Amino acid sequence: MRRARLWRTLTPWLFLAAPLTLLIVFTYAPVANMLAYSFTDWDGVSPELTYTGPDNYVEIFTRPELFQVFFVSGYYLAASAVQIGLALYFATILSFNVRFRNLFKGILFFPYLINGVAIGFVFLYFFQDGGTLDSVLALFGHESDRTWLGSPTSANISLASVSVWRYTGLNFVLFLGAIQSIPGELYEAAELDGANRWHQFRFIIAPGIRPVLSLSVILSISGSLSVFEIPYIMTGGATGTETFVIQTVKLAFQFNKTGLASAAAVVLLLIILAVTWLQRRLVPDDRVDLV
Amino acid sequence: MNHRKTLKTLTGTALAAVLLASGCTGGGGSSKGADAEAADDPSQVSGTITVLTHRTDIVQDGTMKKYAEDFNRTYPKVKVEFDAITDYEAEVKIRMNTENYGDVLMIPAVIQKNDYPKFFASLGTQKELSEKYRFTGFTAVDGKVYGQSPMGATPGFLYNKRIWAEAGVTDWPTTPAEFLTALKAIKAKTDAVPYYTNFAAQWPLTQWTYVNGSVSCDTEATTALAEGNPWGADGELRVGDRLLYDIVDQGLIEKDPATTNWENSKPQLAKGEIATAWLGSWAIIQFRQAAEKAGADPDDIGFMPFPARVDGKACATANPDYNQAVSIHSEHKAAARAWVDWFTEKSGYAADNLSISTLKDAPLPEVLKPYEEQGVELIELDDTAGGTVKNIDSASEVGIFGPAYRQELVDIARGAKDGDIDDFLDDLGKRWTEAEKTVGS
């Protein structure tokens, strides 16, 4: 009997062994390592490293210029508002019966499947002088003569729109899934009551997908604070497009201040946790009860 | 309740284990100070060695294999294997934390010069090696040499001779002002882009740091970097950066630097769509090959030194390429050493790349013949302070070996960023000299 009980207790852990091992080895161990490095002056290769206590953190918070790069996140924050709006719009339309529905779903989701590095390179050609964007504009009779990545504002807007192009599909799929979990009878009942499409969206869909909507907002805020791939590949942070993560990567790999960079990464993690916590406080996640 | 407790203890143990493991990184370095001595009898040297290299191109097209076959004629018992790494710096940096970084490797830029004895076996004393080889000072620590570059290069302007002639400039400019006048003539009289920044590829901007030494003709220029202000009134880097600024500021560059393309710039320069680019003599062969591919004349590609003269004479610095070193953990040090020596002396690698040979008595490559005719002096900088310069660079976060500050400089020059060039350069100098104090000797 006792053996049976022992097995009963052990079984779930046996099933969990594989994912837990992966989680610990690839997530928590590196994070613990990073935390450890953030208290040292390690340069990334030298076999010797000395413990410097909180020096790195003191340095980060006494150098306000390190936080200036967060202004760049504003562009991406604005872009994510556009992105969520677009995704919501398409998800709503495509959840009803539309011709070529599945084709459109595929088209919208497709960009998310492409490797971020490839996207960066493709859009470099897109924004090139006389590149795709200029030629398309020329087709419509608009002879464009501007350098899209030339000035900080236009470069950041260009990069942020690439990010919209890439991530709209993900939001769209999340929203679509949530919308389709709303029982179909509700729409019928609403139509009987004389509700038009807008009313249906306003009073059924929007409240119905609130948890997913707030999750998307959290993801896009933390995403905006930690933008990396697209600006790193396309401009390398030049012309005022440097983000906090690019700055951290430069500290670690260009100036060999791995300790300081680890501390910066920890600070970014704490900022994101704080923002998320604040958001959960302001917009509590109530249970949805449509029926 | 019971379950929850188990979970807590379990995660607790796991975390403790993780923290323990993280405490054990590093280590090694116990065999500090080993030597890789050259063997007397080639037929006795044996073993399989792995050579880490950044030259993925010549590993793929079989050139490296041919070198290895040649090598086996002298050293029949050594088997050479190549490990070609695309993102060399980043990948090898991580491997340097283990003991497994090949038998022979190119010394990554990130390794501190003073740490060389912890990672590499010594090849001999500088006194002895410098009689025969160039560049020994670049890897010498406490009088012992830890690496050997198979070839050297000199920084300079690659230019299209035909376009420059069309613009009516036949003599090399001798001052930055003359250089600007020449570029203006090119803009006025030809369709070519006078100067191409390669802004988007980033590393070509870093090449401007190698102006160092060309301005003053002083072999102690690197020591001056470590001890003075490179952006002071007549600092080497100020002269170079100022020229770059003026070129951009006067609109003598491509229209949209942010979307430049390094691979495309090669045929463009060969065909005369681009007139000039500051690179290094190592690039000549790539541009010539691109010219052949594009159906242009490879002989149009010329090379000139920095427009500065000391007593009427131009100076060009000879710098080593990646230095090859023998890993301190190698089990076949004699074989590894044999490869390093053979590759430098006998392989013909330097000649194949139209580069300056490491052997002191070897003739200059044919592409640098005009240098001989015009009396350009090839100098080798004393690199004793090279390690300190890197430390100052990291501590100040200026990044003379990275692209960021020159990208900013180009942005200021073309009005994409607010700022004044003099303030900008002065600020760099201030950060640099402040870091000098913290880094010390």
Automatic annotation (TrEMBL), chain A:
Pfam families the UniProt entry points to: BPD_transp_1 (PF00528)
Any one biological process term the GO annotation gives: transmembrane transport
Bilayer-crossing regions: 12-31, 75-96, 108-127, 164-182, 203-225, 259-278
Keywords annotated in UniProt: Cell membrane, Membrane, Transmembrane, Transmembrane helix, Transport
InterPro entries given in the database record: MetI-like (IPR000515), MetI-like_sf (IPR035906)
UniProt feature coiled coil, ranges: none
Membrane topology note: Multi-pass membrane protein
UniProt domain ABC transmembrane type-1: residue ranges: 69-279
Statement: the UniProt record of this protein carries the keyword Cytoplasm: no
Cellular component GO terms held in the UniProt record: plasma membrane
Signal sequence interval, chain numbering: none
Family statement drawn from the similarity comment of this UniProt entry: Belongs to the binding-protein-dependent transport system permease family.
Protein name in UniProt: Sugar ABC transporter permease
Species annotation: Streptomyces phaeolivaceus
UniProtKB/TrEMBL annotation, chain B:
Signal peptide span: 1-16
A Pfam family matched in the record: SBP_bac_1
Top-level taxonomic group: Bacteria
Alphabetical UniProt keywords: Cell membrane, Lipoprotein, Membrane, Palmitate, Signal
Entry annotated with the keyword Secreted: no
Source organism per UniProt: Streptomyces phaeolivaceus
Record's keyword annotation contains Nucleus: no
Gene3D superfamilies, alphabetized: Periplasmic binding protein-like II
Protein name: Carbohydrate ABC transporter substrate-binding protein
